[in-house]
Amino acid sequence: MTTSMSRTTLPIGAIVGGVGGVLAAVGAFIAWESVSIAGTGESMTGWDGGNGGKIIAVLGLVAIAVAVAWARGTRIPSPGRVMVVAGVLVLLVGVLNYSSVNDDVNAGNAMVPGAASVGIGIYLDLLAGVAIIVGGVLGLRARQN
């Protein structure tokens, strides 16, 4: 007697979007801005620096939840569209915060002898927004086929 095992494949859009969601959530807790003056260093995370990091973390969790539901086959209306919207919002909030942090860094470097820089967390969140958008677009394309 032979048995055939059905092999379930995960939707690539869910995987890419889910990874983007994880990157967004993690990026909100990593340094967005670093300042070093006379050997003393300080950094500010997206979570600590206002609502931008909190918004990105929540959107990252939304992307993760949609990716998990999508991968499990749970019926949700247009997961690809939800991913694209979440990704665009992550990217938009990330770009706005990058601009704000970059202005702070430039002003700080002009006034205080030391070094200020944009932290890796904000770059991670920008990458996350792109990944979530790509995951959503892959989902939309797979749905058309």
Task: Please explain how this structure is put together.
- This protein has 145 residues and is mainly α.
- It has one domain (24-144).
- It is built from four helices and three strands.
- A three-stranded antiparallel β-sheet has the order 2-1-3.
- Strand 1 and strand 2 (40-45) form a beta hairpin.
- The longest helix has 33 residues, at 79-111.
- The chain is elongated and about 55 Å long.
- The two termini are 36 Å apart.
- Mean pLDDT is 85; it is low at 1-6.
What distinguishing features does this structure have?
12% strand, mainly alpha, 3-stranded antiparallel β-sheet, elongated, 145 residues, disordered N terminus
Structure described in brief:
The chain is mainly alpha-helical. The chain contains four helices and three strands, in the order αββααβα. The chain has one domain (24-144).
Q: Calculate Rg over CA atoms.
A: 19 Å
Q: How many domain modules?
A: 1
Q: Helix share of residues?
A: 55-70%
Structural class: mainly alpha
Number of strands: 3
Principal-axis shape equals: elongated
Give a short account of the largest sheet. Answer: 3 strands, antiparallel
Unreliable stretches covering 5 or more consecutive residues: 1-6
End-to-end distance, in Å? 36 Å
Question: Mean pLDDT score, rounded?
Answer: 85
Strand order of the largest sheet: 2-1-3
